[in-house]
Specification:
Layout (H helix, E strand, L loop, with lengths): L8 E4 L4 E4 L7 E6 L10 H19 L3 E6 L21 H13 L3 E4 L2 E4 L36 E6 L14 E3 L1 H13 L2 E8 L3 H15 L4 E8 L2 E3 L2 E2 L10 H7 L2 H9 L7 E2 L2 H25 L3 H6 L7 H19 L4 H24 L4 H25 L7 H16 L3 H16 L3 H13 L2 E6 L2 E6 L44
Parallel strand pairs: 3-4, 3-9, 9-10, 11-13
Antiparallel strand pairs: 1-2, 5-6, 6-7, 7-8, 11-12, 14-15
Length: 514
């Protein structure tokens, strides 16, 4: 635990390499992240940006920085920390018009029939971020060809009014701002022209962020952003998820069936710069992983409850060497992996899993007969390890403000919705299975259990009681049926709600199996 904290290295899209992070002002960080336009609901691709930069925000605060985090308005009700500022374009029209006027005054903008364009020919550094040359730019890409432009690559700073669009007065006539100028003006307003981090999805590198750099530098020659950070795409069937392709799932659609923490866990399971392919199988696995985390934390709370205070006040009680080793390893791995360009998958899949297994093993040890001093040592070990686990989960944004019981119930409610069942129906199935076992109808008993497992409901026999928990749906082998033969439906059977992808195979954490 006394090891020197590793230096934070982050990949800079501008320099195309990882760099040691050094803020402009010691102890303070200014960060601007492009959100989404509010004309439509956010999809999972947007969620990835929210989560990636939320983890960066949390980690910078964990490192002790005072962070001013600005993210333009988004409609999503997610589990991210609120940014310091969430500006709306409509509240910053004066700043936008002032910046456009300055760009024109500095010779990099021109007005045509109520429109204002940025002149890329007058900004020699254009293409610095994306690496694209002006001759590579194709007229008509994302915007319509306009022969009034001096160069086909020139882009709009202000757009003349059109019927049905919102309108504001300006020195160039009524209209509205171009897409790119909005972020330049708002970031400069809240963070000045020089700040530490600008982020967003990789699809924003060109043209949005390239144009932002041109605008900001044309308006103020001292404009500088030290680190450009971009997250990778979310794909569906290996195609980029986007509204234009119609292959996207909104955050609200997904979180109707899955807990927001499951979506976050899924997104953190891949390094933020790598592409991640969305599938129900993967989010099912993440949902089960989150349930496992919170079940372990709840079991730990219950196991230490009666002896927690005594273990804390008894000066002779020490945690076990094995527990100390586990705590130290989790702490060191957590800091090392986040310091290495926010490598969250390594934390989720290695050190954290090892710590959770150790907690469950210690809980089982506590259930056995021990001397009092050994009991207190085990309890103190559990308390200290749980604290370290919670710290890791907090920085990753996986620690809810709700109790473990409440989160587990929410996860169960989502599982019931996916299965198209009520809890009363599950209890009825448990009773039916119990009767079948008493009557030695074991094939019937097994079938009930298998049918529920196929719907993502696991039955577990704990002593004389049977309980249920969510699980990854288990695909059952189906007998071959002639193509022309249709399987009859069951009258009155509740149909499963549609899911936004294919149904997965099952994996259940080994130490939670009964």
């Amino acid at each position: 635990m006394a090891n020197k904290r590793p230096e934070f290295q982050v990949y800079n899209s501008m320099t195309k390499q990882k760099e040691i992070f050094k803020p402009i002002v010691e102890g303070k960080v200014g960060m601007y992240v492009c959100g989404v336009t509010s004309y439509d609901l956010s999809h999972i691709g947007h969620a990835r940006a929210y989560v990636a930069f939320d983890v960066l925000y949390r980690y910078l605060r964990y490192l002790g920085y005072e962070v001013v985090y600005v993210r333009n308005f988004t409609d999503v009700d997610d589990k991210c920390l609120l940014p310091t500022q969430q500006p709306r374009v409509t509240d910053h029209m004066e700043q936008i018009k002032d910046m456009i006027a300055q760009i024109i005054s500095n010779g990099c903008g021109y007005a045509v029939d109520g429109d204002v364009y940025f002149s890329v020919d007058n900004f020699p550094k254009y293409g610095l971020l994306s690496g694209r040359k002006l001759e590579d730019n194709r007229a008509g890409e994302r915007v319509a060809v306009d022969d009034r432009k001096r160069n086909p690559a020139d882009f709009a700073l202000w757009k003349a009014a059109k019927p049905g669009e919102p309108v504001w007065d300006s020195p160039w006539g009524p209209g509205r701002p171009g897409w790119h100028i909005e972020c330049s003006a708002m970031s400069a307003h809240y963070l000045t022209h020089t700040f530490d981090i600008h982020g967003g999805g990789m699809d924003l590198i060109f043209p949005h962020h390239e144009n932002e750099i041109a605008q900001s530098c044309a308006a103020c020659s001292e404009s500088r952003i030290n680190y450009w950070i971009h997250n990778g795409f979310v794909t569906a069937n290996d195609e980029k998820m986007s509204k234009s392709l119609g292959n996207f799932f909104t955050i609200r659609e997904v979180t109707k069936l899955y807990h927001p923490l499951a979506l976050r866990h899924f997104l953190l399971g891949t390094h933020y710069r790598s592409p991640v392919n969305y599938s129900t199988s993967q989010i099912e696995i993440s949902s089960e992983a989150v349930f496992y985390i919170y079940q372990t934390l709840q079991d730990c709370e219950e196991a230490v409850y009666s002896l927690k205070e005594e273990s804390a006040t008894n000066a002779k009680v020490r945690i076990s060497p094995a527990a100390q080793e586990c705590i130290t390893k989790l702490h060191n791995e957590f800091e090392a992996k986040l310091a290495d360009d926010l490598h969250t998958p390594s934390i989720l899949n290695a050190a954290l899993q090892e710590a959770l297994r150790f907690i469950n093993s210690s809980i089982n040890t506590l259930k056995k007969k021990q001397q009092k001093q050994q009991q207190l040592s085990t309890v103190k070990s559990l308390v200290d390890l749980e604290k370290q686990v919670r710290e890791v989960l907090d920085v990753l944004g996986l620690l809810s403000s709700l109790s473990c019981t409440e989160v587990l119930q929410q996860l169960k409610d989502k599982a019931l919705r996916r299965a198209g069942l009520t809890e009363a129906e599950i209890f009825h199935a448990i009773e039916e299975r119990t009767r079948a076992r008493k009557n030695k109808e074991f094939s019937r008993s097994d079938q009930i259990r298998s049918d529920l497992a196929a719907k993502g409901i696991a039955l577990m026999d704990v002593g004389k009681e049977t309980v249920w928990r969510p699980c990854v749906p288990v695909q059952q082998e189906q007998p071959s049926v002639p193509a022309q033969q249709e399987k009859p439906g069951v009258p009155g059977e509740q149909q499963n709600p549609p899911r936004p992808a294919e149904k997965p195979q099952s994996v259940v954490p080994a130490d939670k199996q009964q």
